[in-house]
Amino acid sequence: MVDDLRRLVEIESPSHDVPAVEVSAAAVAELLERVTGRSPRIVDSPVGPHVHWQGGGEPRVLLVGHHDTVFPLGALAERPFTVSDGRATGPGVFDMKAGIVLAAHAVAALDDPSGVEILISSDEEVGSGASRQLIEERALACGNVLVLEPSADGGALKTGRKGVGTFEISIDGRAAHAGLEPEKGVNALVEAAHQVLTVAGFAAPERGTTVTPTIATAGTAENVVPASARVKVDVRVAVMDEAARVEEAFAGLTPVDPAASVNVAGRVNRPPMDEAASVTLFATARAVAAELGFDIAGVAVGGGSDGNFTAAIGVPTLDGLGAIGGGAHADHEWVDVASLPRRAALISGLLRRLTA
Fold it and tell me: Furthest-apart CA pair in the chain: how many Å?
């Protein structure tokens, strides 16, 4: 498993980089064929190929993951794949190339893989716009979904997730010389500051809603009144009612300076994954873990995944079955190597029960 993980991590696959993602998809397909003895199909998309593997027979359970990462080309040169002190590190090792490796080896351990499908998408980190329809289609066909995203702290499974959305606020003003005649300009950066403070107030922590401005850009030169500004905002909601409230609040934004214009794009595109979707599968996972000699916890988390989509259409979904480790999306991302066999055994046990 460590050798397979090395092969995947050493092929960089940043979202939106189609040539890189094509190479990564070929590596994922090679891994699945070599380990399971069955060839997957490559599903082309505008943002790069998805990989779909089927064990034959009547579909009963879908393993879902992704092979794109948040790290740009060149991150591997700065942080090459390394195993030290029981930890594997490198770009994308935890989120979620180790999950792909676990899926392949878990399926390979089955006497009969009939009823099992694996779908590894190429665009999860950027919203799953090109893969959502296929994921939902195969989830409905299979009737159960196990998501290979990394575990929560200590190896806990993810039994619920918040809904996720990204909004972009575009502000247009008017440029002017910052020293000679600033009064003739309309400062888009100042307007953006007002809007940031306003949208931060849309949060409702008591209802599980977070609204977090994350990226801001403005201006062209230090002596020019900024004519435009852009602000991106991350939104997380625990219930869909809050999604509607926040979307309405964003739609109602108006400029503080009447000479500026404010436009908003975006929405909550991942619905919340209600914990009710995972109740039965989590009970099964605990039973399998007990047979293997350990206990396993379940927690609701703020991050989103493709499990949000499958749960929202009524398919039982259990998330966080991927690697144990930490540091997702960070330079210190790592995987606990010693835990990989036990994690694969847990997934295999779940598959056996769900396909019996």
Answer: 79
pTM of the predicted protein model: 0.91
- CA–CA separation, 162 and 177 (whole Å): 45
Q: Is cis: bond before 240, omega within 30 of 0?
A: no
Give the three-class secondary structure for 96.
helix
Q: pLDDT tens digits for 156-209? A: 999 999 999 999 999 999 999 999 999 999 999 999 999 999 999 999 999 999
Cα 215 to the center of its chain, rounded Å? 19
Contact status, residue 64 vs residue 146, Cβ threshold 8 Å: yes
Phi, psi of 250 (to 5 degrees): -65, -40
Rounded to whole angstroms, the Cα distance separating 92 from 10 reads: 10
Q: Are the C-beta atoms of 343 and 323 separated by less than 8 Å?
A: yes
Query: What does residue 332 show for φ and ψ, rounded to 5 degrees?
Result: -100, 15
Q: Tell me the C-alpha distance between 205 and 246, whole Å.
A: 13
The C-alpha angle with vertex 332 and arms to 120 and 16, in degrees rounded to 5, equals 40
Cα–Cα dist 102/112, whole Å:
17
Q: Both tokens of residue 169?
A: 């606020």
Backbone angles phi, psi at 32, to 5 degrees: -65, -40
